[in-house]
Amino acid sequence: MLKARRDGYDGHGNVVVRAEDEAQAALTRLGRPAYAEAFVAFERELAVMVVRDQSGHIEVYPVVETQQDPALHICRVVLAPAEVPPAVAERAAGVARAAVEAVAGVGAFGVELFLLAGGQVCINELAPRPHNSGHYSIEACATSQFSNHVRAVLGAPLGSARMTVPAAAMVNLLGSGAAALTQADLSGALSVPDTYVHLYGKQESRPGRKMGHVTALGDTLEDALARARSAADRLHL
Amino acid sequence: MLKARRDGYDGHGNVVVRAEDEAQAALTRLGRPAYAEAFVAFERELAVMVVRDQSGHIEVYPVVETQQDPALHICRVVLAPAEVPPAVAERAAGVARAAVEAVAGVGAFGVELFLLAGGQVCINELAPRPHNSGHYSIEACATSQFSNHVRAVLGAPLGSARMTVPAAAMVNLLGSGAAALTQADLSGALSVPDTYVHLYGKQESRPGRKMGHVTALGDTLEDALARARSAADRLHL
Predict the structure, then answer these.
(1) Residue B229 at interface with chain A, using a CB cutoff of 8 Å
(2) Averaged pLDDT in 10-residue chunks for chain B of 237 residues
(3) Is the CB of B55 inside 8 Å of chain A's CB atoms?
(4) ipTM above 0.95, yes or no
(5) Cβ(A199)–Cβ(A212) under 8 Å?
(6) pTM of the predicted structure, to 2 decimals
(7) Which of B42, B98, B99 is nearest to B70 (CA)?
(8) Could you give the CA distance from residue B147 to residue B169 in angstroms, rounded to a whole number?
């Protein structure tokens, strides 16, 4: 896998190279410095938001599972916390923290990881900013990723990253090229209990474009996901 | 007590009339239509946020206690929920709901009440808008008063007004005419756990002006209030 060193996201900046003689064409296509990694046969994808302040103190958010659209390479669903054994969650959190310490980052970092067979984890990419996989923290954590990012940048101490509810599910609202959102769609979505709709105000809807997201809180992931999906299904963007 | 029918707040628009021959001067001073009420010897002040949507559905927030500065007539502290017997809380919530139904209001209403000896309540004033006594709902309720106000105005269904934590305390940040907030002040306030600082961005600090507020969440009112006060005391505005 050739990965652009900068400005990669949602699979943009990645090119699979299956044979040596494909490498030069792939580099030309990327058009910028890249690094090469062995292709990873992962079982699931995890992510961890890590925020580091100017004094080096770190808050690590819960380890979440991210589910991508296989065709679009775009995150569809985030489940918080991830349903993994405690030892795996600890390992993922430790790797994510170490990665941000290694670059002496300040602010919020989205650390994306692959979960391998046997419970090992390896880092896929670091996003040096608030991240889609941390949007659930707005409603589900004591301090959101956005608040903590601003605190870090301002040189202030961080707030707790702990979850304040048992479970949260986030579903991205991807563009379908549909007409504008209707009042009935919005009211339908808002009628789902403990479910929060975020619309980004983008004027143009393109297929696969992130137009907003929905977060639902619940006692279990299954319950939260069912309600987040139910609300998202009513929002035709 | 003569009260201006509109545009009253924080005691502005109220004039105490102790004798009949003071009434005309008081009306002239108010300069707008007023109504007259018997002076109420209350024991404490309560408040309830009520939001009514366009279909008539109502969400009633928890009954809170508000504590005013005796000299400035400005709210200093809000305790949510109020420490009153359940029967008193039910009565206050019922009166507040009935008041908003009586005016067929749509949107958020701050209903201020007097708690009398013997547990009776009577309405002091209705604020037809999101209200200082409901700011705690940003962090402490499933849906904030601001979200529900917007939902109501948009013709959408309301979210739950229930508290998601055992206790919350809000302390207003009143202007002291001090110089600009320092980084050290802000960092000190943000170092208090589970405490949220809201600054309104007002350029001019005048004594008694509401410059912001602090909300702290906790397992008990005492704990939340102690932390809210601790953070507020560090913010010199």
Answers:
(1) no
(2) 84 88 90 91 96 98 94 90 98 98 97 96 94 98 98 97 98 85 93 96 88 97 98 93
(3) no
(4) no
(5) yes
(6) 0.92
(7) B42
(8) 20
